[in-house]
Design goal:
Number of strands: 0
Oligomer: single chain
Shape: rod-shaped
Strand content: under 5%
Largest sheet: none
Distance between the termini: 42 Å
Radius of gyration: 31 Å
Order of helices and strands: HHHH
Helix content: over 70%
């Protein structure tokens, strides 16, 4: 039975039973509609859940990989310039090693 049919049935029952049963008819209709809404929401959540779980397990997207690479290069370049101008170039190795490790770990996940 569709929502429209349910409403027509409730209105018809209200006419047949009279105003003294109006509260019971409305409450019954609202209960059926609440149950139908819950069923539809559960159905949609069940459809979305496998997709959401699949996306979560598939690893970073190409856009995320590119963003990390761009940010890493920009920060690495800025830190390189800062250390060179501060006469502390001996720390460059560790900065770039950290960038390589972070990027390697981030990109070692399953490709989407």
């Amino acid at each position: 039975m569709t929502t429209g049919d349910e409403l027509r049935a409730a209105v018809s029952a209200r006419r047949d039973l009279g105003p003294e049963f109006e509260d019971a008819v409305v409450e019954s209709f609202l209960d059926r509609m609440g149950t139908e809404i819950d069923r539809r929401v559960d159905e949609r959540v069940a459809q979305l859940t496998p997709e959401a779980g699949k996306a979560a397990r598939s690893g970073p997207t190409e856009a995320q990989r590119l963003a990390l690479a761009i940010i890493s290069m920009a920060l690495g370049t800025i830190m390189t310039l800062v250390l060179i101008f501060a006469d502390r170039a001996n720390g460059l190795f560790w900065i770039w090693l950290g960038i390589v490790i972070v990027n390697g770990i981030y990109n070692s996940g399953k490709k989407s």
